[in-house]
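SEVERITY: medium
COMPONENT: batch folding queue
REPORTER: lab tech (J.R.)

DESCRIPTION
The queue accepted two submissions in a row. Attaching both inputs and their returned structure tokens so the on-call engineer can compare them side by side.

ATTACHMENT 1
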Amino acid sequence: MVSKPASRCRLAAAALLLCQVCSAAPYTPASDQVVLAHLPDSLRALAPPSRPLEHDQALTLAQQQIHQARREGDPRFLGYAEATLEPLLSSEPNDPAVGIMMATIEQSRHQYLQARSRLKKILKAHPEQGQGWLTLAVIERVQANYHAARQACRESAGHLPPSATVICQASIEALTGPPGPVYQRLQRLADSPLPMSDAQRRWMFTELAEMAWQQGDAEQTLAYTRQGLASEPGDRYLRFLKADAQLALGNNQAVIDAWQHQLAIDGGLLRLAIAAQRAGHPRAEHWADLYQQRLKAAEQARQQLHLREQARFQLEVLKQPQAALATAKRNWQIQKEPADLRILTATARACHDRDTLALARQFIDQHGLQDQRVASLLGETP
């Protein structure tokens, strides 16, 4: 792919934000016999019920649909879950379990304001709902409301297994100070006989992998992702983090081998395109084109785009730092996790945007975040 010549970043960013996307004419098949797509078996098996289910059955099915959305990265399952819950939302509007599950769907769609408002209303009436506090903590953490996130973790104590509260608190502390002590505490938890469900153990290894990544240790990140994937090989987030560690270690072929036959997962396709381009793979341009088509289709359908990954694609594959910076800035308005700060800093550095680099430093100074990759980018700023 050929990138456009560089120009001043602020002008390019403004142009990108102001330009209108010209939509192509919709495709019309020649006949009813034309197959437009083959639906995965999971879509059929987890489709919304044709009639309302009983309370517990509906919650179980909705939970399975949400899990499948996270596993496959397919937002259609979130729509299925919402449709499954809709009758309960109408007939039992004050049911806390139904409301918390709906807030989980909203959180997964990055509809943080709606999810937060729903959870606060529920938790005011039902403070014993530990899962609700955890979900609220995640939302506050993603938006860098760390004091509120800590409070939500504390409120969950006594309503959840002790290990869940420990992991929740550790996930916040690692973002607001030296990650080393918190890292060691979670390592001790991993070695302890404290009972944990598979989901809690996977969460713990995810946090350990994130902390190792924060400290610039790709080898240890890889080790923890493998431990987390032992109980759920399809965990999408851990697989993405594993691929990122492999890319950092220069093991492009491992990423290609893992993702070249799973092109339906957007985040996997992105990492495949990056690995293939770095390795000079003959299908590198094809996979990059495929990811770009995916982005255009989502935009035309007005679906929620993952702006962080879009910015990474623009920076690393398309070599369009100005466009990447504009996207990273839009993403920063929505969420402020370390990965969001990394892409914001990387794109700002590529564009020599001193104002945005100053914004990154201010955020770090305000919250005490320590991230080796961000520090390296800021330290090398000309």
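ATTACHMENT 2
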Amino acid sequence: MKTAIVSDTFPPDINGVAMTLERLAAGLIAQGHEVEVIHPGLNESGGTGFSDGFREVCVPGFPLPRYPFARLGLPRPVFLKRRWAHWRPDALYVATEGMLGISAMHAARSLGIPVVSGYHTHFPQYLSGYRLGLLEPVLVRYLRRLHNATRCTLVPTEETRRQLAARGFRNLEILERGVDTDLFHPVRRDRALRRHWGAGPADLVMLYVGRLAAEKNLAPVFESWETARRQTPGTQLVIVGDGPQRAEWEARHPGARFTGFLTGLDLAAAYASSDLLLFPSLTETFGNVMLEAMASGVVTVSHHLAASRRFVEPGINGYAACQESDDAFQRQVFRALRERRRWPQTAEAACRTVRPLSWERITESFAGHLRRAATGPGLPLAA
């Protein structure tokens, strides 16, 4: 089967959507499919390159304000229509809802190519963090119209499916996420790295991994750490990631260790060398960070949403706040600290939970959705 994937983000971008798409593209190739990924990469010439067996096509784009490491693709309907008339995909997967994705949908519709969409990011929930909450109904209507014009929309959890269905989204199917349990593993724990962070063998290392931005609700991370280190001197906080709020948080908390983005073995070592992941985001559709930490044998504290709701049994393989408030999150942090003697059992339970979540199984499910779209009835009408 031939599949085209269109997205505003793809490696070398570092985020959950880019990582997921790279895994799916490589997985399809391993299963014998042909794959083309179209995205606004650093090379804007429109030329092609190959990575892990799939073809990458870079198109023009522009950096987002305050996010110089993120780009939005410009609409390319004529280019895509000509390209797909020559190399016709059996199905198109639109992963992001910007101008590039819309133009891809129009090009595909004109050629009779079935479209599957992915709901990877809760953009409406981001708006309140930027004081734009009044725009949420407008954005929801836009996203609903876009997704309802595709054969189906893939969402990562049942929770997200219910939320979108309540807002009038149709044809929702679940595509879970996987984790590389060979890369993210407790054996990556590195004493030398902990010493570099200023942590002795018995010292506690708290960890945050992700974008440093308003929508990630970072205040509880730093408040929990400041309280913990007053009670237990030597407690360290490691922040892995970057974003528009980095300079602000770095200035306010000079004792924390900011590493910037990490990937591969460096990221795996950072997880495994830590003791407690703090993940206070309230806007996740999934949260790959949770699976990576659990696979690494790290105890996690989160809100009981998205991946946490799907995989964390509070008090058994992690800690989760059932109320969506900073106070509730911090209560779970300090519950975890009081129960530190149980962490070896908690971490082992977390590893067992995520061990079966292979990307191979997820990719097989993805291919099944694409195949059904390619062989199903005609395209739905726009909502």
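NOTES FROM REPORTER
The two ends are 29 Å apart (CA to CA).
No errors were logged for either attachment.
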